[in-house]
User: Which sequence fits this backbone?
């Protein structure tokens, strides 16, 4: 256990382990936030940070986020995350060694892809441990690219928020990447009008090919639409953008959309309905979880569709208890974990 308690993001983590190998030249952290509901599951991020402490902070924040996402999705999994902040020249050897270090945790942590990691990396990890997901699926089994299932979860949530149909409604989509593009396809198939922004020209072009109008990336949040869907990076809902948001509803896949806790209150004060990110973007981890547990592909879609009624329950709880939707979601998760700890 490394000294992580003094980090402001520590939040009662069960364990934080330094991983890596000096000779191979790689280094990182595995953070295990909570295992009350099952082994801690969350991907491995490869990123450059200005300081090692920043890598630790990111691992802690992401790991805590996985506890909340997995618990809300009613998966038999806790929350954890790995961050590799220094990658050696022999990438395969680094991931094999990392796999051995995951194995040494005896199943308390299950890894998968996150930003910067590839399927080839997961295959290297799998040579040393079975506690890994995100490897191409076998016929009939769940697995593979999680983004179509993430998009489906966001899509069914959007439909529910718009009263059951997107026909003729205008949706502003920020980011037409893996999730955003799949979402755009589902929306156009059911007759929605799209306004899309992306800083990547080729991703924007493929959205245009679906018939989407476009908006500048720095103005998409202010487009007059029935719903705004952030599917790019986090912290897009902040003190600068919230006063300019024109849509009455926000529902998208991006992780950590609220820059600060206060931004949830800002949206509420403006009368904007915010669908908490980790409630609606759980389709990918639902897919990964089924893969890890060796379940058939058919179980996944029903679980992903269940995100929509779950979201409506969270919004009802928020309204009834005068909380922001994010606060209501957090409270539901904390109760679920406390109940699991008692049993
Ligand atoms: P991606 O990298 O494939 O797509 C992101 C897209 O956003 C890219 O096309 C990028 O060019 C664009 N973008 C970046 N900055 C932008 C800006 N300022 N304005 C407009 N567009 C911008 O990533 P993804 O897998 O589609 O994930 C999108 C979001 O959803 C991320 O926040 C991710 O953490 C979250 N998420 C993804 C999954 C999944 O299954 N892939 C699951 C849960 C959450």
Assistant:
């Amino acid at each position: 256990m490394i000294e992580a308690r003094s980090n402001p993001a520590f939040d009662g983590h069960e364990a934080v382990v330094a991983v890596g190998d000096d000779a191979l030249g790689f280094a990182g952290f595995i953070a295990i936030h909570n295992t009350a509901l099952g082994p801690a599951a969350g991907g491995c991020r490869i990123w450059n940070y200005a300081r090692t402490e920043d890598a630790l902070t990111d691992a802690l924040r992401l790991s805590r986020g996985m506890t909340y996402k997995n618990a809300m999705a009613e998966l038999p999994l806790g929350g954890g995350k790995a961050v590799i902040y220094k990658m050696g020249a022999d990438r395969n050897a680094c991931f094999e060694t990392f796999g051995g270090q995951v194995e040494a945790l005896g199943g308390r942590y299950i890894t998968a892809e996150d930003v910067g990691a590839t399927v080839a990396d997961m295959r290297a990890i799998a040579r040393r441990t079975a506690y890994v997901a995100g490897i191409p699926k076998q016929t009939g089994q769940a697995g593979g690219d999680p983004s179509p299932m993430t998009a489906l979860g966001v899509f069914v949530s959007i439909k529910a928020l718009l009263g059951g149909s997107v026909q003729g409604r205008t949706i502003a989509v920020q980011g037409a990447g893996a999730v955003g593009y799949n979402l755009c396809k589902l929306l156009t198939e059911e007759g929605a009008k799209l306004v899309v922004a992306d800083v990547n020209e080729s991703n924007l072009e493929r959205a245009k090919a679906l018939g989407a109008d476009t908006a500048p990336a720095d103005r998409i949040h202010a487009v007059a639409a029935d719903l705004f869907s952030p599917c790019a990076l986090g912290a897009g809902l902040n003190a600068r953008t919230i006063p300019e948001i024109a849509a009455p509803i926000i529902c998208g896949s991006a992780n950590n959309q609220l820059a600060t806790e206060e931004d949830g209150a800002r949206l509420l004060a403006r009368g904007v309905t915010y669908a908490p990110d980790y409630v609606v973007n759980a389709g990918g981890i639902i897919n990964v979880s089924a893969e890890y547990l060796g379940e058939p592909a058919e179980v996944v879609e029903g679980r992903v569709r269940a995100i929509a009624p779950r979201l409506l329950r969270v919004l009802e709880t928020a309204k009834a208890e005068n909380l922001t939707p994010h606060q209501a979601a957090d409270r539901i998760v904390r109760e679920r974990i406390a109940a699991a700890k008692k049993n």
About this structure: Residues 52-72 form the longest helix (21 residues).
